[in-house]
Amino acid sequence: MPAQDIYEFIRFQFGKTDFDHFTKNELLEPQNSLTLDRDYNDYIRVYENHRKLISGAGFFNQINYTYIRPKNSWQYGFTVNMGNAKSEFNNQKSTTSLTGFNNYTSRHWALSVAVSDGIALWGAGIKLQSIENNIPIQINSFPVSRNQAMNQYFLDYIEPSFGTNIIFKENIKLLQPILFYSVPLNKSILLALSFSQSRHTLFQQLRYSNNSNIPQLTGSRKINFDGTIITNSADITITNNKWHITPRLVIHDSRLNLDVKNILPVDNTLDLPDLGWLTGTRRGFDIGYTFTNGNLDHQINFGFMTVSAAVNISTPVLGREILPIAHGVKADLAGKVNTQHLSLSKTWQHTNVFITGNLDYSHAYYDLTIKGDAIIEFGLTSVPVDAPLQYHLYLGELAVQTVYKLKQYSIGYRFRQYLPYLKRVDDGPINFKPEVKEPDYKTRGGGQHRFTIVYNFN
Q1: 214-230 pLDDT, tens per residue?
Q2: Is the pTM value of this prediction over 0.85?
Q3: For residue 74, what are the contacts with CB-CB under 8 A and spacing of at least 6?
Q4: Per-residue buried b or exposed e for 28-43, using 16+ beta carbons within 10 Å of the residue's own CB
Q5: pLDDT of 136 higher than 80
Q6: Would you put residue 378 in left (φ > 0), alpha (ψ -120 to 50) or beta?
Q7: How far from each other are the two terminal CA atoms of the chain, in whole angstroms?
């Protein structure tokens, strides 16, 4: 997954669903330019005694053409953006239960068009993206219980049912249209509105080899995960040519629906065709302002979200102990999220060299409750879960950009360092960390290098 998608996902946790588009002031100045960007992303490197166990890195390339021209009292412009990304993740040298190699590619295309009569602005845009992911996974160890009945009727069947090598494939399509509009409320105040909807169509597939004690179920098998993620957002901004402050309000709503289908062998009636579903919602708002004073900017935002999710999922038939064996789980997750964001930016100029420094801090507090229970057979029992999940997610960003401008060219380099940190603060019984002491790992990464070339045709 390229940094653009990884960090968009992280920013999504803070309620940010930005889609760049023209503003009224941008249409006032003619422009005819071509921009080329190339990123190198150092996601993560994990070492043990100077030996690299985990690595993740990738490249991102994009080209952007912008054309803005006034015609009499009208101004119009359009921008076209195209790009592709490729990244790899490898933890095959680690000692974790699951190891593998991830090969991720994506392509995108975007168009934005705007027109202004000098008073109001109208515009529209669209973004298309295609994502492909292929992950061969090696299962190095399987769970074992101290309860012999749990082993006999459940856990002992996992390895023969799924094998030690599985492949996860993913194909995601994004369609995101946007409409935007600006209108003056009086001689100094401008109201800007935008509305967008992003629709991710998900197709994911798990491929494995079944060697259970039911001959009709053996051989190459597939489980499909089909669904959609739909996000609607409305953006309201007010600008005043007498103010240094620009207030902004963003309202967003997201919905996830996912179905799990078991692809059955021909003429098979012993297995389950439908394995369950997953749903989720996220609703909230983000309010804040941007302060501009010469070369110094700062931005402050506060957000609130409610989140919920429900899952009802079952395993395929794992095998037979007189009767076919299959187990499942039902769970619900609900709660709220509070977010804060602070950004500082300053630009220095020396002749044709411009240096910009950015410092960003974001924080999100998750106050969630999870309720769930296993659906298990053959007299097996489980303890229902009703527990809190409370987390603090911190994200720091430090960036420095240098741009050298000539008459028609400009060349730029930007380094950005991301510093994420997740801290759990509840005392619930759910534990995601292993009970054994982990080795002394050293984790590095989070850096992004961007090289930019701009050519102005004017």
Answers
A1: 888 888 999 999 999 99
A2: yes
A3: 115, 116, 117, 118
A4: eeeeebebebebebbb
A5: yes
A6: left
A7: 37
* Spatial CB neighbours of 443, under 8 Å, sequence gap ≥ 6: 44, 45, 46, 47
Nearest to 428 by CA among 364, 366, 363, 340: 366
Nearest-angstrom CA–CA distance, 101 and 246: 46
Percent of the chain with pLDDT over 70: 91
| Burial (CB count within 10 angstroms: exposed 0-12, middle 13-18, buried 19+), residue 56 | buried
The whole-angstrom separation of Cα 278 and Cα 261 is 12
For 2, 120, 228, 266, the CA distances from 202, given in Å and listed in that order, are 18, 38, 6, 25
Query: Do 178 and 125 contact (CB within 8 A), yes or no?
Result: yes
Furthest CA-CA distance within the chain: 84
Domains within the chain, CATH numbers bracketed: 3-456 (2.40.160)
Torsion region of 8: left, alpha or beta (phi above 0 gives left; psi -120 to 50 gives alpha): alpha
Q: Cβ distance 47 to 38 under 8 Å?
A: no
Ramachandran assignment for 414, one of left (phi > 0), alpha (psi -120 to 50 degrees), beta (any other): beta
pLDDT: which is higher, 261 or 94: 261
Nearest to 102 by CA among 33, 38, 6, 188: 6
Q: What is the pLDDT of residue 4?
A: 46
